[in-house]
Amino acid sequence: MKIELDDNEINTVKNLINTRIQELRYGMDEDAEDNEDEIRGVIREYKKLLEKIDEQTK
Questions:
Q1: Mutual orientation of helices 36-56 and 7-30 as an angle, nearest 10°?
Q2: What is the rounded distance in angstroms from the CA atom of residue 56 to the CA atom of residue 33?
Q3: Number of other residues whose CB lies within 10 A of the CB of residue 31
Q4: What is the largest CA-CA distance in the chain?
Q5: pTM of the prediction?
Q6: Distance of alpha carbon 52 from alpha carbon 46, whole angstroms
Q7: Shortest CA distance to 21 belongs to which of 52, 48, 42, 49?
Q8: Alpha helices, DSSP H, located in the chain
Q9: What's the pLDDT tens digit per position in 2-48?
Q10: In angstroms, rounded to a whole number, what is the distance separating the alpha carbons of residues 54 and 14?
Q11: pLDDT tens digits, residue range 19-29?
């Protein structure tokens, strides 16, 4: 899917993703280690998404 966003909207999306990564990291510190691998996987996917956004906005 392709959508057109202005710089402000792109920055907002990136900030939301970064905030979610930080929330997951904080939650990982408090939660049992049972979910740690799953949470790390989700964080990796969010980071890949950020990389794709950066590649497409260059």
A1: 170
A2: 35
A3: 12
A4: 40
A5: 0.83
A6: 10
A7: 42
A8: 7-30, 36-56
A9: 788 999 999 999 999 999 999 998 877 766 567 888 889 999 999 99
A10: 9
A11: 999 999 887 77
